[in-house]
Design brief:
heterodimer, A: 644 residues, mainly alpha, Cytochrome C Oxidase, Chain A, globular, B: 194 residues, Four Helix Bundle (Hemerythrin (Met), subunit A), 6 helices, elongated
């Protein structure tokens, strides 16, 4: 009897609080708030559906967070009579909870990193399936599967899903899992805020997916006002709530990462010795911290227009569509660099490891990343060249946009200089770095035509733009993410990915990607517009070619999925220092212990001193390489508790 | 807030303080950017005055209710400052009553701000000017609500005798408290000149 009671109590402890209790309470809260909001409507006035929908989503979010236990820590901080005991804190960090810790409000940075990784992969998978549907629809002229409205919703959902995924893809998984270890910290500065940032993202996903069932949002991913004001379906409200939740999540994560790097660096880890990846992530989140508030404000204003009948974007009442465009693109263009900087930095990190050399012009590279960061907040106006706004600032915006190509050029110089006379070990991560460089050159050069007002007048709003930003965001940065994914997967999951499948994934993706988007460059040069559900006959050949190559990309995605699933299930165990890297994450055991280091290391050198190192296997083998790690005065020891 | 790390591997006090300062300062920067975005949006719409409809004949908000709310808010900031100074002088122990006064003033300011916001009797659909004033008024109220909640949590720690052990909390909460006062004041001034 006592055993049964103990088991039941244990089960209750596991379920409450957890994602299960969060979902249950969130749904109950949403229903209750929906009923209350419906009854509060004035009988003599038409129902304000938008107000009901927004209240329902707010109810979902608040009660989900109550259910998952997000407020427990806040309550205890203020009103508990004592601090949490060591055992209680360990429980919150996921100690002894096995896989279940991934489904709770767990504070361990490695758990949060894994949660971000899983979410990123799911978003990428869903987003790429959306892309595949778009290419299917555009394979031949005329409507095939979808109505124009459904097609627009699919394009919008694909866009937002991919933008969200690309923003979090490096800073989320690797910024959380790897970065604290890289700087010699035991966790993030604010572990509870770390969990909050992830679960805010999680809470936004059902809101976003619900748009499919309440009319969609045919504005596309930009949600341009006043179109978003005028759309009668409540799907647009869901879009706004999603963006606000995501914006808050990103801001919280940014505050946490910057604070962690500022105050939790281990002894000797000076700014000059920081790994380049840490620089990339920190600069990226600082940029996000700067850019996202205006995006959140823009969506608050759209909700105001829709729910409370304000007129921020309605010209007949003194509002302006340009206001939305400014607020949106003040986020929208820096956002590209929020995506780019950590991926570029990861590529530099990987290049150093597999060239067995220090990064060429490391300080120059850091300086160029900082310069990109500064310049990128001043270029948003180039998105308004053809909007009819005042032309006085076109020149400065054009100049500033083109200036960014100079520090970006330093990035190429740094990587090529690192390859130069290096002892190159051709691995899957390095293949993706090379692919990234190739695609980034094409994406960058085609961007110059869009930064220049005279050519942009011709090319804007066409498939050329679509192809350009796919080369930048997908061909360069997502490929950079793949490099980071293959590089840190063994450390994060403790298993090796299959090398041959990795190589196959690379070539299928690269060939499919180049085929798809070079064809779309051609269609754009021929004059094909972007926002058209049906392909005109004159662009049919280019679109058919693009769609056929998209099948190759889809096959590459399934190759990756197969590789990940089989490797996790029965892959070889990874060693602690899988690639012979010298940054601190390679000095801790795999799986990484809960507190990362038995003793905090003291740093005495930069992490790229490869002077004496030799790759153990020049071919494609994945055997661990014995390379002295970043010089530390206290070597960490293994601990029994697994953190990953 | 504590973490497992602090329990098992005591973080040095200066790092705890640095962490708290950096976190709150970044929160302030992020929030200040959203306030700037709203003010810039208001200035932009005012300057554009699309179709001459920005104001649409709407009158400016009543001066004295807003002034009253701001005075109460400033008094709350001053009371907090007095309490913080007392805590600093007495090695972590300040007069509770002064903090309670500061917190009560924050709540009164919140109530006054809600009253000011509700009293903005513009006709729906709102013109750009009225839209901006409503957003500023309610955003300001949201700030004060956050201040009141934070004050409640600090009061809980004071009553449980758990503030002295982490004296830096008084300082970093002060950052947010003063920022709330400054942001409220700036938004009110902007609403007068828009």
């Amino acid at each position: 009897m006592i055993q049964v009671q103990a088991r039941r109590s244990n089960l209750l402890n596991q379920l409450f609080p957890s994602v299960i209790s969060g979902l249950v309470l969130g749904v109950i809260g949403a229903v209750v708030i929906n009923i209350i909001a419906t009854h509060l409507q004035l009988a003599d006035q038409p129902a304000n559906t938008d107000a009901i929908v927004v209240a329902t989503y707010v109810g979902w979010v608040i009660f989900f967070f109550v259910g998952i236990g997000a407020f427990n820590g806040v309550w205890k901080w203020g009103f508990a009579r004592r601090d949490a005991t060591s055992a209680e804190e360990l429980a919150i960090a996921g100690h002894g909870q096995g896989l279940w810790r991934y489904f709770r409000y767990t504070t361990d940075h490695k758990v949060v990193g894994m949660q971000y990784l899983a979410t990123t992969l799911v978003l990428f998978f869903l987003g790429s399936m959306g892309a595949f549907m778009i290419r299917l629809e555009q394979a031949v002229p005329g409507a095939i599967f979808f109505t124009p409205s459904t097609y627009n919703t699919i394009v919008g959902m694909h866009g937002i899903m991919m933008i969200v995924a690309t923003i979090i893809m490096v800073s989320g998984p690797f910024g959380n899992f790897v970065l604290p270890i890289m700087i010699g910290a035991r966790d993030m500065a604010f572990p509870r805020l770390n969990a909050l940032s992830y679960w805010l993202l999680f809470a936004a996903i059902p809101v976003f997916l619900s748009t499919l069932f309440i009319g969609g949002f045919p504005t596309g991913w930009t949600g341009y006002a006043p179109l978003s004001d005028q759309i009668l379906t409540p799907g647009m409200d869901a879009y706004c709530i999603t963006i606000i939740l995501f914006g808050i999540s990103t801001t919280v994560a940014a505050m946490n990462i910057v604070t962690t790097v500022l105050v939790l660096r281990t002894k000797g880890m000076t700014l000059a010795r920081l790994p380049i990846f840490v620089w990339g992530v920190v600069l990226s989140v600082i940029l996000g911290l700067t850019a996202f508030p205006s995006f959140i404000v823009s969506q608050m204003m759209v909700l105001g227009d829709r729910v409370f009948h304000t007129s921020f974007f309605i010209a007949s009442y003194g509002g302006s569509n340009w206001l939305y465009e400014h607020l949106f693109w003040f986020m929208g263009h820096p956002e590209v660099y929020v995506v780019a900087l950590p991926a570029m930095a990861a590529a530099a990190e990987i290049t150093a490891v597999f060239s067995r050399k220090t990064i060429f012009g490391r300080r120059m590279l850091v300086g160029s990343l900082i310069t990109i960061c500064l310049l990128s907040v001043l270029v948003w106006g180039h998105h308004l060249y053809t909007s009819g706004s005042n032309t006085a600032l076109d020149g400065p915006y054009m100049l500033d946009t083109e200036l960014i190509s100079i520090p970006t050029g330093f990035f190429f110089l740094a990587l090529i200089g690192t390859f130069w006379r290096g002892k190159i070990w051709v691995t899957v991560p390095l293949l993706f770095v090379v692919g990234m460089l190739v695609n980034f050159v094409i994406g960058g050069i085609t961007g110059i035509y869009l930064a220049d007002l005279p050519t942009d007048e011709i090319l804007h709003g066409g498939m050329f733009v679509t192809a350009h930003f796919h080369f930048t965001l997908v061909g360069s940065m997502v490929v950079g993410f793949f490099a980071a994914f293959y590089f840190w997967f063994p450390k994060m999951l403790g298993r090796r990915l299959n090398h041959s499948l990795g190589v196959l994934h690379f070539w299928l993706f690269e060939i499919g990607f180049l085929g798809t988007f070079i064809a779309l460059f051609y269609a754009g040069l021929q004059g094909e517009p972007r926002w058209s559900a049906n392909v005109a006959p004159s662009y049919a050949t280019a679109n058919l070619i693009a769609s056929l190559f998209a099948i190759v990309i889809a096959v590459s995605v399934f190759t990756l999925v197969y590789n990940v699933v089989t490797s996790v299930a029965r892959g070889e165990l990874a060693s602690a220092d899988e690639w012979g890297g010298k940054t601190l994450e390679w000095t801790v055991p795999t799986p990484v212990p809960l507190e990362n280091f038995a003793e905090l290391p003291v740093i005495t050198s930069t992490p790229y001193e490869y002077g004496l190192a030799e790759p153990a296997d020049e071919g494609f083998g994945l055997d661990a390489v014995e390379v002295p790690a970043q010089e530390v005065s206290a070597q960490p020891q293994s601990q029994p508790e697994s953190g990953a | 807030m504590n973490t497992a790390l602090e329990q098992m591997h005591e973080i040095e006090p200066h790092i705890q303080i640095g962490r708290a300062r950096a976190g709150v300062l970044m929160l302030i920067v992020s929030d200040a950017l959203s306030v700037i975005a709203i003010l810039a949006a208001g200035g932009y719409l005012s300057a554009l005055n699309v179709l001459g409809q920005f104001k649409g004949g709407d009158p400016a908000p009543a001066f004295f209710p807003g002034l009253l709310a701001v005075i109460v808010l400033v008094l709350s900031g001053l009371a907090y400052y007095m309490w913080e100074r007392g805590v600093r002088k007495n090695g972590g122990a300040g007069q509770r009553v002064i903090f309670i006064l500061s917190w009560a003033l924050m709540i009164i300011a919140l109530a006054a701000q809600i009253w000011v916001s509700v009293a903005l009797k513009y006709a729906s659909p709102f013109h750009g000017y009225a839209s901006m004033l409503l957003l500023l008024a309610w955003y300001s109220a949201f700030h004060l609500l956050l201040g009141a909640i934070i004050g409640l949590l600090v009061l809980g720690r004071i009553l449980n005798g758990r503030l002295a052990e982490r004296g830096y909390i008084v300082e970093v909460v002060g950052y947010w408290w003063y920022y709330t006062v400054a942001a409220g004041l700036i938004m009110w001034l902007f609403s007068l000149v828009a």
